[in-house]
């Protein structure tokens, strides 16, 4: 059977409190051993000297568009993009067509991923039938088929009674409820954060409160039902504060945020470039500061991308007509390293924890560690070489990034999925 | 003064000197429209496309007359629906027009930022004729020209803009230009029609019309889109009219020689009474006259200056 030895790298494996030089030995697709100067023979040796070696990253919020929107992305291209960013496990959101509200779609995605995927793909099932926010989907069947969590992501659950019942039911199934927290009446067809910048640009605003009120409602329902509530793509100072308080009270709440919420604000939107348009929108500077603080203080549990590929025509058009969302898999680690670790907001070890074991724990998948016997998902990063983001060379079909041309450190060099090298930087 | 920019997209990007230069040029063009032969050859042989993606009568006609009086060839391209609905992207439509070699594109669109987007990809001159709630630069310029004609200057004046500031591109252009030329700007509306952070654009916000009008040199009344009532931005048209309608009684609080302006079309009896609209303080018709002159000046400065000067 195949063996790989990753030699001399700086291994960061927060789950096992490893943060220093070590070798990683892989056998039969599993982690065999992690330790200093391992004296073993391997079929393949990878020299990781000067590099960072981590458990393969886990991104619990991506949109792979298949089935239904294959012109934007497929499971094959999306997972290729993942491994190019050092991501070895993703949870894909169910806003496909048809949506993942039925066990057959869960099976379809799993079998596609097995055949064509570069990494592990975990489907997230819908909360409601047809993602319409009206009636509960067959949550038990979805779980049986392999859905790892529940969400109607992209669409909020406006009906509080439905959310209450779903939380009760999901608690029985031990599934986390991930909500796209947005009061759609308050966001009122807005296209960017409401504030000085939207006023100046003459664009319809989405107030911060449209997110924050829903975070508040969901926290109250989580407290009432005891369900696990995970706040998707947190972007406002108010949300961070509410989650901080809820955690203090012992309510079962977790939260994620994305790199664009700590690197960009509404003031970054220039020339009506729709690559700066996503939902939730880029917020005000005080929100950006609060997100960074929330990351620093551990209020935010994990980092995800909300990877949302679109065709160029859906972005190169009127700003208010353009699709919401940006790609992120290939820039997630560089933006985390260069904009959180290097400036000292969090340590490298905490960053890796947020990108691996913390994320995996939220949806209950056995990923994100280099523990002996774990799947050999390993990523190697170069944190020394500064390189420019080149959108057109992304493996994703989507080139819609606001970071094109940014100079960053922390690029994936080699990505191993279940003991197989799935990506090598050119 | 030599003209640098290829386009006129916003008044935010112009300096006070550039704005003044456009106004001076417009003043000299005004005379052309009073002749029996209302034409100069400044833009002879140039093709100007009026690219209107939103219903508009006055602005389109004003631009068309301006271009015709400069002897340009005019092409009207109008669509009511968005490019996506039409099935062709706006960029493809522009490329089609550009392939037929056009010189200037006058763009009106319901989406903010469309003129900017088009200007970035075409070599032709792009003139913003109103984009979403963003800007309406030629309206701002004609307003300034009208104020200057009556007051002799802009600097030091107090201008009060009354009405739906949130959705008004006219207000944004006026605020920016008036600030650059040293006027004090007040805006007055219920909080539901005042956009977040507008103070940062350099205005003082009022909710009480009487206070807002007190001692003002210029009263600028915005058109109220009556359908906004359905979005709960004000309770009824009646209440709006009672609280924010400008009539002769309330106008007494402004300076004695105050002028009243409106970008049109008016809802008489709603935001402005007929007594004011037709009264001695009203300069609304002059705004329309100045619109043609300002648009001639803009077309000329952006396109025709290399041609012969108006004679």
Describe, in plain words, how this protein is organized in 3D:
The complex is a heterodimer of chains A (about 425) and B (about 300). By secondary structure, chain A is of the alpha/beta class. Helix content of chain A is about 30%, strand content about 20%. Chain A has helices at about 75-85, 105-115, 140-145, 160-175, 185, 195-200, 210-225, 235-250, 260-265, 285-295, 330-340, 350-355, 355-365; strands at about 5-15, 20-25, 30-35, 45, 50-55, 55-60, 85-90, 120-125, 150, 175-180, 190-195, 205, 230, 255, 300-305, 380, 385-390, 405-410, 410-415, 420-425. In chain A, the strands form five sheets. In chain A, strands 1, 2, 3, 4, 5, 16, 19 and 20 form an eight-stranded mixed β-sheet that branches. Chain A has a five-stranded parallel β-sheet with strand order 9-10-13-14-15, with helices on both faces. In chain A, a hairpin with a 2-residue loop joins strand 2 and strand 3. The longest helix of chain A has 17 residues, at about 210-225. With about 300 residues, chain B is an alpha/beta fold. Chain B folds into two domains: about 15-135 and about 290-300, Rossmann fold, CATH 3.40.50.1370; about 135-285, Aspartate/ornithine carbamoyltransferase (Rossmann fold, 3-Layer(aba) Sandwich). The interface of A and B includes residues 200, 204 and 319 of A.
Nutshell version of this structure?
Chain A has 13 helices and 20 strands.
Question: How much of the sequence of chain B is in beta strands?
Answer: 5-15%
Query: Can you identify the CATH class of the largest domain in chain B?
Result: Alpha Beta
Number of domains of chain B: 2
Largest sheet of chain B: 5 strands, parallel
